[in-house]
Amino acid sequence: MEIMKITENKDELMDLLLMGDEQENMIKKYLYEGDLFALYDNDLKTVCAVTREGDDTCEIKNLATYEKYHGQGYGTAMLKYIIGEYEGKCKKLILGTGDNKKIISYYGKFGFVYSHTVKNFFVDNYDHKMYEDGKQLVDMIYLKLEYQS
Questions:
Q1: In principle, which of 6, 26, 68, 112 could form an S-S bond with 143, CB 3.0–4.6 Å?
Q2: For range 52-77, the mean pLDDT
C-alpha cells in the first residue's frame, strides 16, 4: 500500500472524487487549490483532497474509496495518513459531511467532534437532491479534530 501526493492531472481522478462529492463543479472549486492524495494497493483505491482554510485550519474536502473496496481499510488508512500529515501544519482539521449518524460515529473514532452546522448546504449548493442511506442530505455537519500544541 502506498499513498502519493498528486500534483498534476488531478482531473484524471475525477471518477473517484465524484463518489465523495457528487457534482464536478463543486469538486473543481477546491481540487486545484488544495492537496490531493491517492492510495494505491496495486491499483487506485482511495483519494483525499485537503485545503487550507485560514492560518490554522485545514479541511478534508473529499475522501472516497471505490465501492468494491469498501470495508477493506483503505479509507481508514488514508484518514490516519491525513491526520498525521497535517499535524504541525495546522492547529485544526475539519470536514463536512451529511447528517448521517454512522459516518459521524466513524469519524468520532479518530477524535473528530461536532463543530457546527451549515443549514441547507446540500439544497443550496447542488443542482440535484442528494441521498445517503436513503435519507436526503440537507444540512452540512462539520466535525473538527484539534491538534494538541
A1: 112
A2: 96
